[in-house]
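Need tokens for this chain, all 119 residues.
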Amino acid sequence: QVHLVESGGGLVQAGESLRLSCLASGRIFDIKTMGWYRQAPEKERELVAVIRTGGSTIYADSVKGRFTISGDNAKNAVYLQMNSLKFEDTAVYYCNLEMTSGITTFKSWGQGTQVTVSS
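Here are the structure tokens for all 119 residues:
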């Protein structure tokens, strides 16, 4: 069982910054990626940013240049620095972890943290 605990969400004004943190604990092995997804009301969950164990990253086009994902392998942690926040960034942000065992991929999700950006 893997537990992901997010923190750092909140209410900010447009143009301000927030930093999200996610710590993973439990039975963790061979992490493939850690990342952040978000889901706004009445919308599908979407990828925000992902970091692979080797350090390479993927960003959604909508956040490139504004958000930065980083990880700490020793702590099984992932962070998301969000700058120049926009109203459309308002969503519940979920931490995601993917591990592999052989050909099987295991995915875990956090409970989510609310980010609200007022315009």
